[in-house]
Write the structure tokens for this entry.
Amino acid sequence: MSNSKFAVGVDGYKGGWIAVIAPEKDFNKASAILMTDVQNLKKLIPGDAQIIVDMPIGLELNKPHRLCDVQGRQYLGNRRST
């Protein structure tokens, strides 16, 4: 990993977003945060965290039809939100 002090995994679900945040050297101290708005979630993540977002299709509101998003949705079909 990088020089960050925290590792964060983020995933979206129908009700919003979940993030699991852990000190990089001690995953036994991990905690989870649920939020309805990704912008609010962003405010709770430490600034020096390394963040990994699972399948960020449609994350950019001003570019809802990026070619990679369209192709990703087509490829995943009905399983795109499982």
User: Anything to note?
Assistant: The CA atoms of residues 3 and 30 lie 18 Å apart. The chain is about 20% helix and 30% strand. The chain has a mean pLDDT of 80.
